[in-house]
Every structure is written in C-alpha cells, then in structure tokens.
Amino acid sequence: LTQLQQLYLSYNQLTEVPESIASLTQLKSLYLGCNQLTELPELPESLASLTQLQVLYLHKNQLTELPESLAFLIQLQEINLEGNQLTELPESLASLTRLKWLDLGENPLNPDLAAADKQGTQAVLQYLRATAEGQVTLNEAKLILIGEGEVGKSCLLGALRGDQWVEGRPTTHGIEIKPVTVTHSGTEITLNGWDFGGQRVYRPTHQLFFSAPAVYIVVWKPREGPQQGFVKEWITLIKHRQPEAKVLVVATHGGPGQRQPDIDRQEILDRFGSDMVLGFFHVDNKPTNDRNCTGLAELKEKIASVAASLPEMGRTVPAKWQRVREILQTNNKAYLPYDDVIALCAQEGIDQEQAELFLRISHTLGHFIHYDYDPILRDIVILKPDWLAKAISFVLDDQMTRQRNGLVEFDHLSQLWSHPPVADEEGYPPELHPIFLRLMERFDLSYRVVFDPAKTSNTSLIAQLVPDIRPQSKLTANWGEQPEPGDRQQVQICRIVDNRGQFAVAEGLFYQLIVRLHKYSLGRFNYEKSIHWQRGLMLDNDYNGRALLEYIDTDVKITVRAAYPERFLSYLTEEIKSLVENFWEGLDCNVMVPCITPCGKNDPGNGLFEIEKLIESKKENRNEFPCPQCGKWQNIDCLLNNAPIAQPSAQILLTAQLTDVQDTLQVIRKEMSAKDGRDQERYDELTKKQLATMSQVDMQFADMMQMLTDEAKDGPRLFSFKPIEPGFFDRPKWISAKFELTLWCEHSRQPLPALNPNNKKQGVYELNLSRKWFIKAAPYFKVMTGILSLVLPVAGSATKLMLDDTTYKAIEEQLDLGQKSIESISKGSDSFIDSSNNSDAPDFEQGEAIRGQGSILRELHALLKEKDPSFGGLVRVQNQRREFLWVHPDFVDEY
Are 857 and 847 in contact (CB under 8 A)? Predict the structure, then answer.
C-alpha cells in the first residue's frame, strides 16, 4: 500500500515493527501505541525511510531506548512516547526542527531530562542540543542524616568525613551540608552530607530538601530506645516524600559499656520492606587513643554500596553545565547575582537561552534556588540551600513569634537575621532579608497579612505556629447548623493513604493549606476576621460560597455552602489532591463522598464512597452502588453531586437557556460596573440566582482549561477570532480565508487589546486558515467561544478590572462573529462533528472529545510562533498545582 498516508495499529500485541514498513514512503501518521514493542528497527532502510512522517505514536510500549535513525524523520511534528521505559533520548532528536509536541510522561527519565520535560518540548530539545556538545558522567548523590535532636547526627557526619572529634558539639539549627567521599569497586563517589536539625518544628521544612538520588540515614540513641528516637516515624516521613528511597538505620554511642541497640528489626522490615531499609548498624562516633570509631568502616562500606546502586549513579549530563555547576558549588559563596551566573555560563560557551534552561533545571533538581518570574527573587541565585534553611530555623525557634501564634513584623525578622539568637552564627546582610521573607512565602511557610487594605502590611503569619485550639467564634459555633435559605451544602473527604492503602499523615499539610489558600481567607481584608488553627481553616470565595476545612484523623473534610457550591468544592479538592500527590510522592489522595442518608439509627456516621469507583461503575452503565457501611444501594448520580466532575462535560453549561444566562450576566455586569469594582458589598446585593449563574459560568471556564492542561506547556489556550474578508458568510464553499485571532490572558479572562490600551495590536494576528483545518478545529472553537461569551460580562471580578462599554461591545462583536463563522461552516458539512452538542453522551466521553482537540491547539501554537514567538507578551507561569497558565505581565505576581 505504497500510497498509504495513515496507519493505525494501536491496541494490538505487536512485539516488533517489520522492516517492510519502509516501503510506505507516503506515510504521514503512524500509530503504534499500546503494543508490546521493546525496540524499534535501527536500519536506515526501515523507519528512516519514512521521510514524510509527521505524527508518530509509540505510547504504552516497553521501549528502553530509541534509535538514532529517528533523526531522519525530518517532518516529524508530534511524537508520543508516554508510558515506556526510557531513561535517555538520542541526542539526534534535537535536529527535528519541526517538532512541536513530545510526550515523555510516565518514563523513568534521568533527573535532568525529567526536569527539562516539565518545562515543555522546546526545553527537551534544548537540553539534547546541550548534551550533543559533550557529556560527563556523574558519580554523586546526597547523604541525608535525620533523627531526633541530640542523637549524634552531626558527630556521625564528622566521623564519616574523618573530621577531628569535637567535644560538646552544639545542636544543629536548620541544615548543614558537608561533603563525604566513599569508594565502591574502585570508583570514587562524592556524597553531599546533609545534617538535618532534629527539632519537630523543622520537619515540614526539612521535607523541602528531601530529593533523590540520596542515601538516607536514620540515627537514634540506644539509651533512649527506638520509641523515643521515633525511628519508624522518621522512616515513614522519608517514604511518604520519596517512596523509592534507600535507608540505613544507625544506632550511635556504640563504645565500650554503652547500651546495645534493642530494636525490632523484623517489624521495621515488614513495615517498610527490605528494598527500602537496607541495613542496621551500631557505631561509636568518638575515636579513642587505642581504636578507631567502632563500626564506622562497615557503615561507610555499606553507604558506598547503596550509593553505587542508585539508578541515577553514573548518569550523563551536559559537560558545559556540569563545569558551571562545579564552579558555583565550590566558590564558597551562598548566593550570586543572576547576571553573574549568566556571565559565568557565557564564559563556558553557554548562550542566554540555554543558561536560563540550566538554571530552571538546577532549581527543579534542588541544586540551586532561583525563581525566574518573581520580581524580588529573579535577580539572585541561592547556591547553598542549607544557608537558607538556617535562616528559616531562627524564625521557627523564636519565642516571641511563637507567643504571638505566628504573627511577626518584618522589623523583628530583620533583627533575628541581623543578630542570630545562636552562638557563633554570623548575621545576614540587610539586603537579603526581603529575599528570605519572599522565599518563605514561596515555600508555603508564610504569607503577608492585612489589617487595613489602605496600608501596606509588614506583618507575616508563620503558618506552622498558628494555635492548636479551634477559635471560639459565632461562625464556627453555628457551622453545625443548617445552611441559610437558598444555599446548599456539599461535602467531600480527601482521604490520604500510602501505597498499601493504609491511612497516612502528610506531615505539615495543613500549614501549607493555610498559606496556599489565604486569598480565600475570611481575613484577607482584615486579618482579625481570619479563622484558622492547626487542624482547621474557614474560607470564603464570594459568589462561589463559604467553606470549612477540617483535619479529622488523617482525612481532610471539606464542607462548602453556597447557592451553587460545586465550583469552590471542586477547586479546594483539586488543590488538596494536587498538593498531597505532588509533594508527597509516596501518598495518594482518594476523594470520597458521603452517603446520601446517615447509615442506620444506631450509626450516626455516614458511609464514604470513593469517587473513582463510582465513575467506573457509571461507565459500565450501573446506576447504583452499595454503601460500604450499611450495604444499601444508592443512586450514583445523586452521590456524584458531591463530587468534582472528574472528566468535565465539553457541552456549554446551560446551552438550552443560553439567552437567559446571557441576559442575567448583562444585569450583573450593569450592577457591578455601577460600583467601583472593589467592595465586598457588590456581591451582597446580587440575588441567589445571579450568584449561582456566576458560579456556574466560573466552573465551566475552569473545566475547559483543565481539559487542555497539557497543551499549556507550549502555548496559550485562550483566544477569540473573526473573519477579516467582507462577504465571508456569503461564501459557503470557501477553501481558505483570513481570520483575525486575538490572544486572551488566562488569569483576567480578557483579550490582550483590553489590557494593553497603548498597543491595541499586541497579541492580534492575521492568519490564513484552510477550510479543512477549520472544520477539524470547529468543535473546540465552538466550546471556547461560547464560554468566553459567558465569562466576558463578569471577567473583571477576578482582577478588579471592569471593561468600559466601548471595549466590551467590540469584544462581544468579535465573539459573535466567531460563533457565526462556526455555524456557517457547520451547515452542509458532512465532516463537521459537533461534539459539544452531543448532550446524550456521558460527561467523560464529551470531555475526551475536547481533549482530542489538543493537536489542533498545538498546530495553532506553531502558526502563532512563526508570527510572534512571544505570544503577544503573555508570560507562562505555574499555579500551586504546577499547571501552566499564560497571563498578562500585570498578573504574574499572582503566581
């Protein structure tokens, strides 16, 4: 079939690709996903002859490497390699200049390549170009020592290094880093020894620095016993953060006459597995005149053996990058100006674009700390994380800040950092103090509170130090009663479990939630109105409702009350689930909904249903599911009313009543624009119906953005369009036509011309689109245009901006012309499939239909990049859930 252009062979049991495929020289799309392929043919006369190939899908196979011959496929635009066993990519892929999309998800990539992949396709290609210029092999890892205070961690690290014994060594504040060198089979391995302070208040902070590749040592003192040493708790902390970690358990103070270690090794092995806990040791850190440190040689040999076995050991990295990293790590400076680092990269032959990628990857891997979009932090690169951790520890230990339940003025912080409350510690220069505070905010440790919106606040809340008792207030006292008339109450449970399905603790979760969600705090305009404690938090999201979050055992219970509570409930659930599963890689967050009615008279509690199981049953056309507690069958649709829509409908919400909805939104727009757009009172005067409508529209917008979250890596998702040529609607059989496309900010939900009054043409492009391509893109265009027409009247509510009538009517006209263009082409077109109007299809099928439009968006990104690589000045940022958004520069600080 030598003229064949598309070949679909996915979902078979193919174990190899026949070399005869080379005769299909006209092939443009080849789908080989979901097979059993372990390798691809390397011979030039096989894959390499498919020079017209544009799309290659190889996802969910067993590929461990790719042939260099892929570089001959110079027309390739899309490659899907998700779900294989790849650790590296051939450098030759960097020569594929037309490549727009590369999916490497769910592969055991080496750390540097994985970090590049998080930045998008172009970052991967840039990384491969850097490796093609030269590579070096790295034999290095972290050595992390943790345990309770005063068990001998610092002394053990000193002994491993061969340092002279220090009598009465002071306790560690924060973290100290010192190198250790070991040898395995003739290969020298460099370990960066991280000595973590043992105070309990440091635990949430310490987790920020747990990262592979590392060997972990849990240290305890036999005279206090394993229970007092919290050995199992420390191993659990590691496992939840780094489930693949390798751990050694070391008892210290092992000299003559000292108590021998008494620990149930079998219990620890049964609980954590022998693939995680690799040995138990008893050492004496202190040498004497007649002997060396007892047990130290054996421990050091085991450390070397474990380090050598780490998958990342012996990995290759770009040689130029490694030279720069070594220079930065050995210059004894804790930080450098950003421009100095870029200049150093230039000296080593690394251009500006590649230097920026080097810094982003180094930040992701924890080598350095640099936030390139933060206006306070972007001009500094922190080279020594331990230096920063020590500064944070002074705040956590401060007695005055503790007494004030975490409230602290910047002047007091500055005093702590200028004159550390620890002997022999040098102060930090005043110019660094704002940077420390900003980094604490970045790490979800603190946020700036407001007492008077008219004044700039210099007070921060250190979330770890909030009260442990629920505050007594009218709001918390009345929360157990029924919601107000017109409001509905919905509840979800985020159940946190480990890889065995057992209940688990995410250490420090609620502290991070207090910081992450402070924009919804009841005290966001006046801190005195805040309601939070160590296991609870009350929030308010204007028209989307009020919420109470409670930490009950290991579950986070979310209760939302509003006219339409689904959107706020969904957002909070997504935020918690994302935080748990991204920060604690060894934990899962199962979203549960309660039974519709209490389970029996004698059991006042409600049974809980796991949402994923309800959705699976729904897909199999089952309408009911048994309660796991009382056994009664419950209607799945009723249960899912308490659930976030796992795969949202692509249908425009309320399409049947679209005119009514738009009329309601127009009334809301008039009422809000009559005010100054800033007062909370503007919501109080809206009716329950109006509030519900706003909340529904908000949810629809968020659903669409969520469906195309992957595509946001490489370009924006929001735009409007209209035909340029007169008489467009009188040409039913046009072949190609010119359209004006306008990019929108994904934060403010407004077009760039409205945000750039001095440059109305920025972010506006003239594109020549073919009828064939437009038909293919029309389902996505229809959904997006419809949603933008709904969010437009009240878009200003998120940003305190309100469009004037002239600007508003111009945008409304453009959206109307775009919608008419879609309707025009859909008439009489057999190829047009409007997935958005398939209201009979299940939600998850409609959601998949829109997700399938991702390739359309990627093609559009390529067209726009040719016109303007800057996408009209939009800035790519990440929210707390690590999702990418493209926003106007005015809103970058929000992220």
Answer: no
For 480-542, the three-class secondary structure string (H helix, E strand, C coil) is CCCCCCCCEEEEEEEEEECCCCCECCCCCHHHHHHHHCHHHECCCCCHHHCCEECCEEEEECH
Give the Cα separation of 330 and 311 in Å (integer): 26
For the chain, the distance separating the N- and C-terminal CA atoms, rounded to the nearest angstrom, is 53
Q: What is the spatial order of strands in the sheet that 214-220 belongs to?
A: 175-184, 187-196, 140-146, 214-220, 246-251, 277-282
- How far, rounded to the nearest angstrom, does the alpha carbon of residue 776 sit from its chain's CA centroid? 31
**Could you count the other beta carbons within 10 Å of the beta carbon of residue 251?**
28
* Four-residue CA torsion sign, 802, 804, 805, 807: negative
Burial class (CB in 10 A: 0-12, 13-18, 19+), 562: buried
**Which residue(s) pair with 768 in the sheet?**
738
3-state secondary structure at position 37: coil
CB 12 within 8 Å of CB 35: yes
What is the structure's pLDDT at 447?
93
184: left (phi over 0), alpha (psi -120 to 50) or beta: beta
Strand partners, 103: 80
Q: Who has greater pLDDT, 448 or 294?
A: 448
Which DSSP string do the residues of 831-859 spell out, in sequence order? T---GGG-TTS-HHHHHHHHHTTHHHHHH
Share above pLDDT 90 across residues of the chain, in percent, rounded to a whole number: 25
| H/E element, 343 | helix 338-347
77-98 pLDDT, tens digit per residue, is: 999 999 999 999 998 899 998 8
How big is the CA angle at 744 (ends 742 and 748), to the nearest 5 degrees?
Answer: 155
Cα distance between residue 867 and residue 768, in whole Å? 12
Q: Are 665 and 790 in contact (CB under 8 A)?
A: yes
Burial of 380 (0-12, 13-18, 19+ CB in 10 A): buried
Phi-psi map region of 106: left, alpha, beta (phi>0 left; psi -120 to 50 alpha): left
Does residue 559 surpass a pLDDT of 70?
yes
Is the bond preceding 213 in cis, omega lying within 30 degrees of 0?
Answer: yes
Per the structure block, which two tokens stand in for 522? 């009841």
CA 336 to CA 342: how far, in whole Å? 10
Alpha-carbon separation of residue 861 from 471, 712, 755, 857 (angstroms): 51, 10, 21, 6
Tell if the pTM clears 0.85, that is, is over it: no
Let me know how long the chain is.
Answer: 895
Q: Give the DSSP H or E segment for 551.
A: strand 546-552
Strand partners, 80: 57, 103
SS3 (DSSP) at 146 = strand
pLDDT single digits (tens) 615-664: 888 888 888 888 887 788 888 888 877 655 443 343 444 443 556 677 77
Contact 866, 98 (CB under 8 A): no
Report d(CA 784, CA 853) in Å as an integer: 12
What radius of gyration do the chain's Cα atoms show?
Answer: 29
Query: Exposed (0-12), middle (13-18) or buried (19+): which is 327, by Cβ within 10 Å?
Result: middle
Tell me the three-class secondary structure of 858-873, residue by residue: HHHHHHHHHHCCCHHH
What φ, ψ does residue 548 adopt, rounded to 5°?
Answer: -125, 125
Assess contact for 193 and 145: CB atoms under 8 A: yes
Residue 677 pLDDT more than 80? no
Instruction: Enumerate the β-bridge partners of residue 877.
Output: 885
Contacts of 200 (CB under 8 A, 6+ apart): none
Alpha carbon distance 835, 521 (integer Å):
39
Which residue in 114, 104, 113 sits closest to 60, CA to CA? 104
Handedness of CA 270, 273, 278, 282 (dihedral sign): negative
Q: What values do phi and psi take at 393, rounded to 5?
A: -65, -35
